[in-house]
Write a structure and sequence with these properties.
about 130 residues; about 75% helix; 7 helices
């Protein structure tokens, strides 16, 4: 795939994931402050190559990302990816279930933090309480 195709895929995937819902600054903006070229390389790799692959659906990729971020208690990244998961149509009840599943592998503190982040995102999107 040529550079132009990757750039188009990157923009398309980033728009799907991050263009609506809770107003959050993506990490890309921070990366750009340090090194614009490297930020573009990271963005093309993550959204242009990895997230645009179709072995997993974009919803499955987001649910996997949310599970891993919950397990490592990466609250800021989790907030971004919960919002992205909802943007691409992930069922919020399935996301809640994924966070409860985290207890088996990462413990209840990880569950509690993930659920707090999830609730905050839902509130910011005016989607709380869950129905």
């Amino acid at each position: 795939m040529d550079e132009k195709d990757i750039k188009v895929k990157t923009a398309h995937t980033a728009k799907l994931l991050f263009s609506s819902g809770a107003k959050l600054d993506p990490p890309y903006l921070l990366w750009k402050e340090f090194n614009h070229e490297l930020a573009n390389d990271f963005s093309r790799f993550i959204t242009g190559n990895l997230y645009s692959r179709n072995v997993l659906t974009i919803q499955e990729r987001q649910m996997a990302a949310c599970a891993m971020l919950a397990a490592i208690k990466a609250k800021d990244e989790l907030k971004l990816h919960v919002n992205a998961a909802l943007n691409v149509g992930c069922d919020p009840h399935k996301l809640a279930e994924i966070f409860f599943q985290t207890a088996t592998y990462a413990g209840m503190p990880a569950v509690n933090e993930a659920l707090a982040v999830f609730k905050q995102v839902l509130q910011e999107r005016n989607e709380w309480p869950l129905k």
